[in-house]
Amino acid sequence: MEITSYIIKKCTKIVKLYNTLSRNTEEFTSIIPQKAGIYVCGPTVYGAPHLGHVRGPIVFDVLRRYLIQQGYQVRFVRNITDVGHLVGDADEGEDKLQKQARLEQLEPMEVAQTYTDMYNSVMDRLNVIRPSIEPKASGHIIEQIEMIQTILNQGMAYEVDGSVYFDVEAYRNASNNYGELSGRVVEDLVAGAGNQSRDLEGQTEKRNPTDFALWKKSSPEHIMQWSSPWGKGYPGWHIECSAMSAKYLGEFFDIHGGGMDLLFPHHECEIAQSKAAHKHTPAKYWVHHNMITINGQKMAKSLNNGIKVEELFTGNHELLTRGFGAATLRFFVLQAHYRGTLDFSEEALLASDKGLARLVAAEQLIEGLKVSEVSTVDFSDIIDSIEYALNDDLNTPIVIAQLFEAARRVNLVNDGKETIDSNSKDLVSSLFRDYFRGVLGIPSNQDSSDNGTLDSVLKLLIELRSEAKLSKNYALSDQIRNKLKESGIELMDSKEGTSWKKA
Fold it and tell me: Residues near 97 by Cβ (< 8 Å), separated by ≥ 6?
């Protein structure tokens, strides 16, 4: 999409972000002035995207949009994990892609391509700007092997029968802190691992239970395998991001993003690998978003409690009585601060849908507002508050609250209770364009209850039924209701009007 339509300006105010590494909110200062490199961990593409997949892309899309609006040139890298991520996120077991390929009787790369396309299609609907670069783990085996060899040469890894493991103790003995990002204590990790059988876990190759795989020897039946200096095998899950971020953003870049569930072990291992190979942490700022929960539990494919995004769009899920549009979903995500939990419920989505409709209605009123010589409303204070909120660790709930205040003032002018001059009218128009549509990225073609053709047809039928009732044509009114019920759609009348749900 075009970003040049936004208000582009030099950084007059300091953007502050919470840095998980320092555990402090810090001023953002890019390594190269006015250029920002961002790496965000992307999906493991072995299934359809679910609701838990959307928060991270939306959050980092807003950060990217705001940095662009502030005059930064942003290189945004989001990877695709199509090899090496094992079931259970451990060093032993079956590759998630290979397992899914066996279930679907397809080649692993067919599975990866299918779900990559599905994921990007959902991101497009959510108005998430495509990455500058979208590298795949399977396309960077050489870079991963080279980085593993460097770590071996530094004496911080060891090879056992074709597999290579990172040596956490050697890393610590070189004055490094394994646990600096996550706050984990190695001794506690060792003690916890000691309570389990290493033989059962397949950990006998490791010198210490905290060591992790950089390269795994493959069995003959393992489909996804490559040649390496240590024999046929495949890379560990963590090494891919270290190798690809260094290739496309350099060995030291600005922002590494991801979910809090990746703090340990994934991002902790990334830091260890990069320090072993490059002598320093890979990123200056580590930014983590919290999870979308359902009944207080993380929503994830591995927990089998996820709602697929397509199910949310169509309403075809037991927790939903109707579908919701992409704009509503994006608005729902941004109503909570990215570091706080966001609990899913249909009630919350309905509230987001109504709130979004209020803002869209106000936005549509702006062009038709009657201009006066004198303005009794001002919007400059709202823009100042919005920018302050965005600079304050991307506080989107405050941004949305300020947009509601702008909508309230627009409605007062429209109702003739306040006046607006041409300058203030231009200001509020740019406010909605640059922040509601621009930075927050609310899609303009999927406002409020956009549920595709089904929703449009049902709205038309509900209107026809209402007209039939007004003209006392109760036979037609009942016929519409009954026919819809036969088709699986139940109409519900209330004082607020008529709504529908799947019977």
Answer: 44, 45, 46, 82, 83, 85, 108, 111, 112, 224
CATH number of this structure's domain 341-439:
1.20.120.640
Residue with tokens 């047809």: 457
How do residues 38-47 score in pLDDT, each as one tens digit? 999 999 887 7
Instruction: Using alpha carbons, select from 165, 160, 173 the residue that is nearest to residue 148.
Output: 165
CATH number corresponding to 16-293: 3.40.50.620
- Residue of 87, 47, 97 lying closest to 310 (CA atoms): 47
Q: What is the Cα–Cα distance from 334 to 396, expressed in whole angstroms?
A: 6
User: Starting at the edge strand that comes first in sequence, how are the strands of the sheet with 163-166 ordered?
Assistant: 157-160, 163-166, 212-217, 233-235
**Burial class of 486 by CB neighbour count within 10 A (0 to 12, 13 to 18, 19+):** exposed
Q: What is the pLDDT of residues 85-125, one digit of tens each?
A: 544 455 566 566 567 666 666 576 777 788 889 899 999 99
The model's pTM: 0.83
Residues forming beta bridges with residue 285, ordered by sequence position: 255
**Residue 233 near residue 225 (C-beta atoms within 8 A):** yes
Domain boundaries, the chain: 16-293, 341-439, 452-502
